[in-house]
Amino acid sequence: MEITTTLGEFIVARQSEYPDASGELSALFSAIRLASKIVHREVNKAGLADISDSVGSKNVQGEEQKKLDVYANEKFKMALAARGVVCGLASEEEENFVLFEEALNMNAKYVVLIDPLDGSSNIDVNVSVGTIFSIYRRASPTGQPVVKKDFLQPGNNQVAAGYVIYGSSTMMVFTTGNGVNGFTYDPSLGVYCLSHPNMQFPDHGRIYSINEGNYIRFRGGVKKFIKYCQEEDPETQRPYTSRYIGSLVSDFHRNLIKGGIFLYPASSQYPEGKLRLLYECNPMAFLAEQAGGRAIVSESKSVLDLVPTQMHQRVPFFVGSRALVDKLEGFLHDYG
């Protein structure tokens, strides 16, 4: 009989690799694991239960909230607060960060930033969606309520980051700064099992992922790169394949496995970019670099080096296989 490593066993075995290992990070991952199982259950019955519709309100970004957005946000918030190892949370669905005010929480050293349900606008057409999370050590002293500076940290300060993708199977993919590993959820056992150890971006992908319907709004460098991807050149195996789902988790996950680049550039419609630095770009950039890829916001500017100035700051975002990001960077340098 095949023996598999569960997520819990993996975390305990690797505990010594975590900064200041004392069991809190393991408990934090247990909370994420529990909440993701609950969200998995609801996502998988979204076509049967009245949970995929809109709630009639908008989040702080002005985006229409789905019932599942609110549900996922509450479940992750409750699970993280209950463990006593997180002192505060910032969510894409919340205007301000959330204090966990129990004494045990205030003495905790970690904060979590989360996009509870990325791609939720696609839930009613049965497209894969996901949860993105990012973990930092707080910058303020323990024993006190968290403050804004605890969340406005550059991505290079992340202790861990990852995502859960709810698709044909549910997977958790994460890094603690020592490579990237993927775990597939076995609902018959109720556990995540190690299925994708040491995940790496292929160096030379052949997929580019971008909403080409916005082509007219893009700057010159991005337009030139798209045309480069579409040109016929047997030596470089072009034209490349265009694949765009519209769910960051789904597009990133496919490109991580098959090789490719995801682009969400600034445009005339979104001059600062659209994706959120704290909840989407930083965790995905950390994962990408740990998997041998790259993530940039512009020529010669790494995502992880940015110092955030706002809780819901938006930035351009380019992430994927190293050779493709390098090629894009050349076009950004030459054409802006």
Give the topology:
Layout lengths: L6 H7 L10 H20 L10 E5 L5 E3 H16 L3 E6 L6 E2 L3 H4 L3 E9 L10 E9 L20 E9 L3 E6 L4 E7 L4 E6 L10 E3 L10 H11 L10 E2 L5 H11 L2 E4 L10 E2 H14 L3 E5 L2 E2 L11 E2 L1 E4 L1 H14 L1
Parallel strand pairs: 3-5, 11-12, 11-13
Antiparallel strand pairs: 1-2, 3-4, 5-6, 6-7, 7-8, 8-9, 9-10, 13-18, 14-17, 15-16, 15-18
Helix pairs in contact: 2-3, 5-8
Description:
With 336 residues, the chain is an alpha+beta fold. The protein has two domains: 7-196, Fructose-1,6-Bisphosphatase, Chain A, domain 1; 207-335, D-Maltodextrin-Binding Protein, domain 2 (3-Layer(aba) Sandwich). It has eight helices and 18 strands. The protein has helices at residues 7-13, 24-43, 67-82, 103-106, 220-230, 248-258, 277-290, 322-335, and strands at residues 54-58, 64-66, 86-91, 98-99, 110-118, 129-137, 158-166, 170-175, 180-186, 191-196, 207-209, 241-242, 261-264, 275-276, 294-298, 301-302, 314-315, 317-320. It has an eight-stranded mixed β-sheet, with helices on both faces. The protein has a six-stranded mixed β-sheet with strand order 12-11-13-18-15-16, sandwiched between helices. A two-stranded antiparallel sheet has the order 1-2. A hairpin with a 4-residue loop joins β8 and β9. The N and C termini lie far apart (57 Å). The model has no long low-confidence stretch (mean pLDDT 91).
Assigned CATH superfamily of the largest domain: Fructose-1,6-Bisphosphatase, subunit A, domain 1
The computed structural class is alpha+beta
CATH topology of the largest domain, which one?
Answer: Fructose-1,6-Bisphosphatase, Chain A, domain 1
Q: What percent strand?
A: 25-35%
Q: Tell me the number of helical segments per DSSP (H or I, 4 or more residues long).
A: 8
Average pLDDT for all residues: 91
Runs in which pLDDT lies below 50 for 5 or more consecutive residues are none
Radius of gyration over C-alpha positions, nearest whole angstrom: 19 Å
Number of strands: 18
CATH class descriptor of the largest domain: Alpha Beta
The major β-sheet equals: 8 strands, mixed
Structurally, the number of domains stands at: 2
Tell me the series of helices and strands, N- to C-terminal: HHEEHEEHEEEEEEEHEHEEHEEEEH
- What is the terminal-to-terminal distance? 57 Å
Helical amount among residues, as a percent range?
25-40%
What's the architecture of the largest domain in CATH terms? 2-Layer Sandwich
